[in-house]
Design a protein that fits this description.
By secondary structure, the chain is mainly β. It is built from one helix and 17 strands. The protein is 2% helix and 42% strand.
Length: 262
Amino acid sequence: MLLRPLSKAIGLITMLSLSPFSQAKPALEDPLTELDSNLWWVSDGWSNGFPSYSRWESEAISHSSEGMAITLSHAPNGIDEFEFQSGELRSEAFYGYGCYEVEMKPIAEPGVISSFFLFSGPFDKPNNGNGMHNEIDIEFLGYDTNVMQINYWTNDDRYAQSHEQLVYLDFDASEDFHRYGIKWTKGSIKWYIDGELVYTVKNSNYDPIPSAKDSRLRIMMNVWAADDRISNWAGEFNKDPNTYLTAYYKNFRFSSGRSCTL
């Protein structure tokens, strides 16, 4: 099922200090203008392997007064088969139900994925977590940044269930910052753009959503090049040695006690 185009964005938040809320103050907020090592760590010197065609290097992430940049570039290291590098930001802690938001500008390039998501798995397991794959996604497939893909997995490393949905935008997400939100509760997952609800999945016994009782989730942001074997999904990545593509993120916030609406 595909979604109808969104109405015009209701607003762009450019600074956390300029964004008053009538509800509870966010429990965690970070403009991403520098790396806060109490909140985040950066993947460095390894790769996820298939379906990625790039490896993670800390130097692919930079910070400035404008926020965080994640750059995909051609950088063979002579050690492994990955000729391209990119970056991934990961939260130190794992979190439960609440609203997760970030402003971002994804990369508009076929075969490149820019993402903001929540994740746990066998190698990202919180205390008392079940160690299974649980994930809630916002992804941009660079061949068409007028579309946002949303997705989730529940206790399922084998990808037995498919929950991909496409949200058709009335703007090109790569051209300006917009605020993207995930509201995760026991009963539902809701996705927001600029404070506007765009899609809801309700929990059910037949097809449950991730549960914080099973596992809290790590907050992640990354950019990666797709392997040719998934080009029917992501588009075909152009392995140009001059590749230098950057996605931008700023003004992350999380709160267990507020909605993702203004």
